[in-house]
Amino acid sequence: xxxxxxxxxxxxxxxxxxxxxxxxxxxxxxxxxxxxxxxxxxxxxxxxxxxxxxxxxxxxxxxxxxxxxxxxxxxxxxxxxxxxxxxxxxxxxxxxxxxxxxxxxxxxxxxxxxxxxxxxxxxxxxxxxxxxxxxxxxxxxxxxxxxxxxxxxxxxxxxxxxxxxxxxxxxxxxxxxxxxxxxxxxxxxxxxxxxxxxxxxxxxxxxxxxxxxxxxxxxxxxxxxxxxxxxxxxxxxxx
Length: 239
What we know:
There is one protein chain. By secondary structure, the chain is mainly beta. The protein is built from 2 helices and 19 strands. It has helices at residues 2-27, 43-49, and strands spanning 32-35, 55-60, 63-68, 74-79, 82-88, 94-100, 108-112, 115-121, 124-133, 136-147, 150-158, 163-169, 172-177, 180-185, 188-194, 205-210, 213-218, 221-226, 231-237. Strands 1-19-18-17-16 form a 5-stranded antiparallel β-sheet, with no helix packed on it. The N and C termini lie far apart (51 Å).
């Protein structure tokens, strides 16, 4: 009886190992190798920082897609009668404007600032500002409302850091800032990681499989976050 029990436990152990291996192969391409995250401004960190490889992540057709990407400085959202357009010029500034479908009408300038994202959530429109340059890192989430022929906006959340990547998963907003990671539910933010190693490695995108498999694309690799355990792993591009 004891011998049979040992075989049962051994069999379960093998299944667990194989499952973990399969998950790794399913989500992590072979060109990315799990690596100890470098300390900020260490020699290894500078190597990653000086790389020209920026990796974006997407979850599509049941798998994570990773591809080299470039910095985006423009975003848009189609709404009634026109399109909201956000621009991010870095240290040169940015703006949020409304471009009417009716070309006889003038473009409306809504706000100055570096616009990172514009999105609709439960019937309302929002935008995220973010700015990081020369030691300054700041950003915030705003609600945008249409009033008569113009627009008004109000501050909802201040991140205290520059948002870089954003997505919506179920009823949560996930935000990777210049050096932190937040979740937002019912417009209340929770700081998951502070002063994370990707400070200066420019997170650019977030893709979610489930709570235990949240991927962030950064310079030189990708990061896998487990929201349940509040842990992460860094996968460095090995080529």
